[in-house]
Amino acid sequence: MEFNVDKIRKDFPILSQKVHGHPLAYFDNGATTQKPLQVTETIRRYYEEENASIHRGIHYLSEKSTETYENSRETVRKFLNARSTNEIIFTSGTTGSINTIAFSFGEKYVSSGDEVIVSEMEHHANIVPWQMMCERKGAKLRVIPFNEKGELIMEEYGKLLSDKTKIVAINHVSNTLGTINPVKEIISLAHARNIPVLVDGAQAVQHGKIDVQDLDADFYAFSGHKVYAPNGIGILYGKEELLYDLPPYQGGGDMVDCVSFEKTTYNELPFKFEAGTMNYIGAAGLASALDYISGVGLDNIRDYEHSLLEYATTKLMAIDGLEIYGRSPEKISIISFLLDNIHPYDAGMVLDKLGIAVRTGTHCNQPVMDHFKITGTLRASLVFYNTKDEIDRLYDGILRVIKMFG
Ligand code: PLP
Q: Which pLDDT score is estimated for 2?
């Protein structure tokens, strides 16, 4: 299928606005992506034609709404190549998905003296829930370090795996360094010792095809809003046999089978993990976003974004005093950088005045900042609606910043 960025940009009206008198160049996609008309239209249509609470009514709208919700689940199943819709749980986002497993798995399987492995490049969302669980259970968090290029040191990972390890939680792609981690290898090493692995896919699903069966991931988490879908919806994939044995995370309506004051029994999968009125409109928006990027073509997206990454990296590296953090050859289109002696906030503010939106700060990756002994970076995260012209403007903007502060 032909990839035409000009045509694609017409699907994202927000991109055609001016900011401070300049055309917007939106490079904050790692934080959240913009939504195509197809997604906003799905949501509008839902509210105008279909809205009713799911799973609870026998009236027409409720049944229609339930059908859309379950069809959305099937769309996600296909997108991830999961075996069954019982393995697809709607959550509020990656954070919600990870907290679900950290709590539920911790309750069932972790006790004093056990260990949980994460990496030094995790987003706080894949550190803190495990840390909280470890504190509760008297377990210990072990950390896989990364090298100066921003690659996980696999020998160290091998050394950390032991009979004490209960679970490994690892990001597929780092949100600051852009590194694509060798998750298949990480999973296979853990499985050799019967240790399950949770993969944080928050920065992976929007950049290329994910196949949870091929990865053999036990749990896989991602957020809707980073994949062109609405905020407040996310996915927890889990192997059915593992989810079946885990206790529910939250109690409430819909996740129950039978409730009495003496004893409550729980609903079957996947509903056991979906307590309360779920974000069914967000689920429909997510399905619509996944259909949209599948229509654009995940291979097209991967190839085009890679060409943007190469173009931007070559241009930015030519700037005197600019340092890029994260130089793994296996990388998605995220570029974190600093300018010699210039505070990232100062640089970010000048770029904003030129209509260029980059992220500044620690990106919820304080351990990564500590590794490099820095307080933050500028981050340009590029996706398939960005253009080389926008990268040229970023380059010119950085030269202007250096002229002002350098
Ligand atoms: N994991 C990674 C790698 C992320 O980049 C993010 C968000 O930036 C998260 C987890 C948390 O995602 P959310 O805030 O949507 O739950």
A: 82
CATH number of 50-294: 3.40.640.10
> Would you tell me which CATH number, out of the four given (3.40.50.2300, 1.10.1200.120, 1.10.1040.10, 3.90.1150.10), belongs to the domain 5-28+297-405?
3.90.1150.10
Average pLDDT over residues 107-120: 98
* Whole-number percent of the chain with pLDDT over 90: 99
Strands (E), 36-176: 88-91, 115-119, 140-144, 165-171
Ligand 1 atom nearest to 92, measured from its CA? 16
Ligand 1 mutation target, pool 29, 121, 175, most atoms within 8 A of CB: 175
The closest alpha carbon to 311, from 377, 389, 400, belongs to 389
Closest among 88, 120, 332 to 222, alpha carbons compared: 88
CA of 379 to the centre of ligand 1 (A): 15
Q: Kindly state if the Cβ of 200 falls inside 6 Å of ligand 1.
A: yes
